[in-house]
Amino acid sequence: MNKLISALALGLVFTASAAEPALVQTEFNPNFSGYFEKIASDEMQGRAPATEGEKRTVAYLETEFKRLGLTPYKNGSYRQAVPVVQIDPVAVSAMTLTGDKTAATLAYKTDMMAWSTRMLPEIKLENSEMVFAGYGIVAPEYNWNDYKDLDVKGKTVVVLVNDPGFATQDAKLFTGNAMTYYGRWTYKYEEAARQGAAMVLIVHETEAASYGWNVVAGTSPIRFELANANKNMHKAEVEGWLSLDAAERLFAANGSSLKQMKERALKPDFKAIPLHAKASISIKNNLREIDSNNVIGFIPGSKKPDEAVIYMAHWDHFGLDFSRSDDKIFNGAQDNAGGVAALLALAEKFKQGPAPERSVAFLAVTVEERGLLGSAWYAEHPLFPVNKTVAGINMDIMNVYGPMRDVMVFGYGSSELEPILDKYAKAQNRYIAPEPTPQDGFYYRSDHFNLAKKGVPMLYARGGIDSVAHGKDWGLQQRKNYVTDYYHKVNDEFDPTWDLRGSQQDLFLFYQVGLEVANSQSWPNWLPGKEFKAIRDKSLQ
Predict the structure, then answer these.
(1) Consecutive H or E run containing 402
(2) In a 10 Å sphere around its CB, with 0-12 CB exposed, 13-18 middle and 19+ buried, how is residue 207 labelled?
(3) 188 has pLDDT over 60
């Protein structure tokens, strides 16, 4: 009875059937399904940036933001222009390795993948000395520095994928099995560039990377980068991967093996190891400047309008593939029409109530599928300064499989937003839990990550795998089926038979967490030891 009274006080909605227990909060916004279907429709032509699909999508979002009464981003417009450069590597040479111990030719896509994100028509790297730099990590909070006493200016660094915690499965080393920011391949490139390296090559291992070599070599080589004045000259000249076989041959030429190199990289006294080889490669690029747009609206706070809570979701997907003889449209229903529909449903709900004390912003960002670029641009050019952005919630792929007992939290154990989420989850008779594969590092693969890097505590969660009606095994299988059969495929289309009650429950949670923070005096922070806490603490001084 006490639980029932508490639930009614929160305005919860109960439904029930003989097959399942009473469900709570399954009717957040009846318009959610309509938003979802519209954004995923053929009319939007797959929502690729800088296409007719973008024009239609952005126009629809602008119309809805205006209808809902959101305040425009700037100068009466909901658009934030995002300048992007498309880099198409039209010719990549083989990589030649020369030296007393090593002489080899590595074939493009077979032995190695390489590209340049510098905005130049041609890159030529000749006789760059190679060195093994362990995991390529500088992490003060973990007392780890693979570049200590190492000068890699102009050199090629070879590094391992993931981080030492995953390699050892030691919960006391980094975060054990769960990948940290330092394990992400993007971090490896960023850190090597900061150290002055000319080329960075990551040794590919399927388990540690969480995907096979076919993903590395088979994905489109076209890169997208944010336009900038220095044309990305701050980045390494060449970034890339070594296949497992190529790495083994390289290490064998030095009288070692990958296993031995990994063992040495894990020792506290590890020092970089010369590979007695010099690498050469050339890359020719076609460059094309394109313009895309984030769509942003907000509700000004009634008492502290300069402080903000943000909700975000990416609107873009892969557009049209005219080479296909059948279905040419990448509708991107689950990824991520559902997240954008959630954004509209939340904005509508907030507008139906009194204005919160802090501002609440709604960000539909672009070019997520090609490198999280829209959110990266926003993080550098925010509507609300990052030290005034109290917290954020990201929505990327909503639950379409019905009510779940669990709420899956990516990057579980990261911030003080999680206890708030947990409180409202318990009111739904649910529990929060880590994502099933924390070693895959999904927390670092969606748009919230760019704001997290600026120190803003960001929550990324969704309905999990513990199905109320069918159990965990069934729920996990649905997730696997989606990844195998629908993810980034043309058949990711809206299905009117989907059970969206689970999404409605999740929307209640996202709304309540954001509303509580927006109406509070608190500043949720990262938990001690997390890689973004020092940045946040410094920004609030």
Answers:
(1) none
(2) exposed
(3) yes
